[in-house]
Design a protein that fits this description.
By secondary structure, the protein is of the alpha+beta class. The protein has three domains: about 1-115, Beta-Lactamase (2-Layer Sandwich); about 120-230, no CATH class; about 240-400, Histidine kinase-like ATPase, C-terminal domain (Heat Shock Protein 90, 2-Layer Sandwich). The protein is built from twelve helices and twelve strands. Strands 6, 7, 8, 9, 10, 11 and 12 form a seven-stranded mixed β-sheet that branches. Helix 9 (about 280-300) packs antiparallel against helix 12. The radius of gyration is 47 Å and the shape is rod-shaped. Bound molecules: adenosine-5'-triphosphate and magnesium ion.
Length: about 425
């Protein structure tokens, strides 16, 4: 029996008395706690490092109550070798009370297994499972965002392609229009020169003078048309100056109020420290007036027009989505109305010359074309935001200049060319 006990694979010992004195200890037990002197010592003396881990109290309890205790996966820190760090083990064990003939507890039989290896393997498996789950989740997440990115890029590419096509169409239309307008203008010069010479020859002939006057009026209308088309074709003669839009818009206040009528509220919002821009001021006024008149028409004479100026930076992303835009610093003038808005099926056409939804005689469809051509010729950019039923914002971007402002001419003295 002693041999069997000694060689049993589970660790065993017999403790006697309320202080749990080691009576018998097998090899497996010694292996667990590290070879040390145990027999004849109390557990508290023999295994001082275990104090505070709850085992002694459990033994006390079993001794007192006479009820066995079964524990699983109990963590124990043991000083198995001299000064080494305490070693963490996990054990399953039973404390079995030993009774005398009278039924009193005289000692405790301890039997158990060191399950550290199983416990570690289980933990490892669990954490592997956990990391596996995490990795699956992470991969799924990565794949999903890659997919989203791809979708976004596709949409961006398509948008950029549409923008490119539109820009190319407008470019071609501008070249054609500008070329025709230029030649047309030269022809008008010839006609008007000869008409003026002719006027000397027909002095005193009232009927002929009347006809000549009609012809000259026609030439003047033609010249105006030519100049509007030249503006769209980016071939008008510009006189760029260093302009601060804040003053320019303040100076336009009277003119705008007259153009808009009493039922339309005019609000101007200027941000401080506005940058300067190099632009033809009279053409810029012309453009703003054209936009204001469009807004008035869209609001049916009633509503609110807001003109806002600010510094703006157009970044690479924006430039990628707009074919004709260079990234950089711009001065922004935004003209916003609370009008009808522009339906999506016509918004791509509003910049084309002669595109108008207004009745014959009310609009020639040249206003926005001129604004667009003028801005492009000045290195700027026109962007339209519109929502049907809510209103429209026309954003004019003009490149920033570092130069200081030129003296502004009295704006009221400058003739303004309108669309109609
Ligand atoms: N603020 C706006 N709100 C709603 N629609 C607008 C606005 N501005 C322009 N549009 C639409 O775009 C079209 C073209 O505008 P554009 O200024 O080029 O020509 P027009 O105003 O019709 O004629 P013109 O300016 O030569 O007198 C307009 O007929 C109108 O349908
Ligand atoms: Mg117009």
């Amino acid at each position: 029996m002693r041999d069997l006990f000694q060689q049993a694979p589970s660790f065993m010992c017999i403790l006697s008395g309320p202080d749990h004195i080691f009576e018998l200890v097998n090899d497996a037990y010694l292996q667990l706690v590290g070879n040390r002197q145990l027999l004849g010592l109390s557990v508290r003396k023999a295994l001082p490092e275990v104090e505070g881990e709850g085992f002694f109290e459990l033994l006390d309890g079993v001794f007192r109550s006479g009820k066995p205790y079964i524990g699983r996966n109990l963590q124990v820190l043991l000083q198995r070798e001299g000064d080494a760090e305490p070693d963490e083990r996990f054990i399953n064990l039973i404390y079995q009370p030993i009774f005398d003939i009278g039924g009193n507890v005289t000692g405790i039989f301890v039997d158990g297994f060191d399950v550290t290896h199983q416990k570690r393997a289980e933990d490892q498996l669990q954490s592997l499972n956990h990391t596996l789950e995490q990795r699956v989740e992470q991969r799924t997440h990565e794949l999903r965002s890659a997919l989203l990115q791809l979708e976004k890029e596709t949409v961006e590419r398509e948008t950029a392609q549409i923008a490119l096509r539109q820009a190319q169409e407008m470019e071609a239309l501008g070249n054609l229009t500008g070329g025709v307008a230029h030649d047309f203008n030269n022809l008008l010069q010839v006609v008007s020169g000869n008409l003026q010479l002719l006027s000397k020859d027909i002095d005193g002939n009232a009927r002929a003078e009347q006809r000549l006057e009609n012809a000259l009026a026609g030439v003047a209308r033609g010249a105006k048309l030519a100049s509007q088309l030249l503006a769209f074709g980016r071939r008008q003669a510009l006189e760029p100056k260093v302009v601060n839009c804040r003053k320019l818009i303040q100076n336009m206040d009277d003119m705008l109020r007259r153009a808009l009528g009493e039922e339309i509220e005019l609000e101007t919002v200027v941000s401080g420290g506005l940058w300067n821009t190099l632009i033809d001021p009279s053409q810029l006024e012309n453009a703003i007036l054209n936009l204001a008149i469009n807004a008035r028409d869209a609001m049916d004479g009633r509503g609110r027009l807001t003109i806002e100026t600010a510094n703006a930076v157009l970044d690479d992303d924006y430039a990628r989505m707009h074919e004709d835009v260079r990234p950089g610093q711009y001065v922004l003038v935004a003209v916003t109305d609370t009008g009808s808005g522009i339906p999506s099926d016509i918004i791509d056409h509003v910049l084309e010359p002669f595109f108008s939804t207004k009745s014959e005689g009310k609009g020639t469809g040249l206003g926005l074309s001129m604004v667009y051509g003028f801005l492009k010729q000045s290195g700027g950019h026109l962007k339209i935001y519109s929502e049907v039923g809510h209103g429209t914002t026309m954003k004019l971007y003009m490149p920033r200049t570092m130069q200081i402002e030129d003296g502004l001419a009295n704006s009221n003295a400058i003739p303004v060319k309108g669309g109609t």
